[in-house]
Amino acid sequence: MRRHAVLPCVLGLTGSLLVTSVPARAPDAPAVWRGDFTSRVEVLALLQSLNADLLSHPSATLTLERWCGSHHLAVEATVVAERVHGVDKPLPEGAREQLGIGADEFVRYRRVQLACGGHVLSEADNWYVPGRLTDAMNRELDTTDTPFGKVVQPLHFRRQTLTADLLWSPLPPGWENGASLPPSQADALVIPHFVLQHRAVLYDQANRPFSLVIESYTSNVLAFPSVTPGGSP
């Protein structure tokens, strides 16, 4: 398939994110996509579509549930948070300024994996200010694995994205202008474990920041067959 035949699918989308390097593919990454040009374009379009959906909605959890349902990743499209216990991370540099808190304000850390139908779709680091949540919210966050976005939904929060990085691209920069393409092959496309990362601050209705989150989305967001004949098994 000639590359210019599919330009309308992705032009205007490919230049919006920063591509950075990530470790080699993890063992649980899906292997349903092939390394031909058509499949690569499909994968790029899907990643950009997911990114746009995440950027246009405040709750990543609910966005992933819609993605899981519309792409049939599970019989029941329900995202569950699998909390990672026994880990802690210091606040990133500049985070107190972003959260609008002083040096002595108490901050809690929560790490979760968001999964749908057995697929871990994202891994999130969350630093939040318990003093800006209700007692009931803090209790639920302390004692359950309920996703953070669902717990704080009564705050009617808004989300300000600070960075949105495409960590991997199936096509090289400038491919639409004739840059050299990877050799087309029928073998499975090698996809890194992390493909997209967002860093965002959540604000309540009083415009007070209460959470800093770094979300790393995995290749499992692509764990469904290609719809293009010959593009995938």
Concise overview:
With 233 residues, the chain is an alpha+beta fold. The protein has helices spanning 7-10, 37-55, 60-70, 95-99, 135-143, 148-151, and strands at residues 18-19, 79-83, 108-116, 119-128, 158-166, 194-203, 209-218.
Characterise this structure.
This protein has 233 residues and is of the alpha+beta class. It has a single domain (28-171, 189-222), classed as Chorismate lyase-like (Chorismate lyase). The protein is built from 6 helices and 7 strands; from the N terminus they run H-E-H-H-E-H-E-E-H-H-E-E-E. It has helices at 7-10, 37-55, 60-70, 95-99, 135-143, 148-151; strands at residues 18-19, 79-83, 108-116, 119-128, 158-166, 194-203, 209-218. It has a 7-stranded mixed β-sheet. A hairpin with a 2-residue loop joins strand 3 (108-116) and strand 4 (119-128). The longest helix has 19 residues, at 37-55. It is elongated. The model is unreliable at 1-31 and 229-233 (pLDDT under 50). InterPro entries: Chorismate_lyase_/UTRA_dom_sf. Keywords: Signal. Residues 1-26 form the signal peptide. This is Chorismate lyase. It comes from Dyella halodurans.
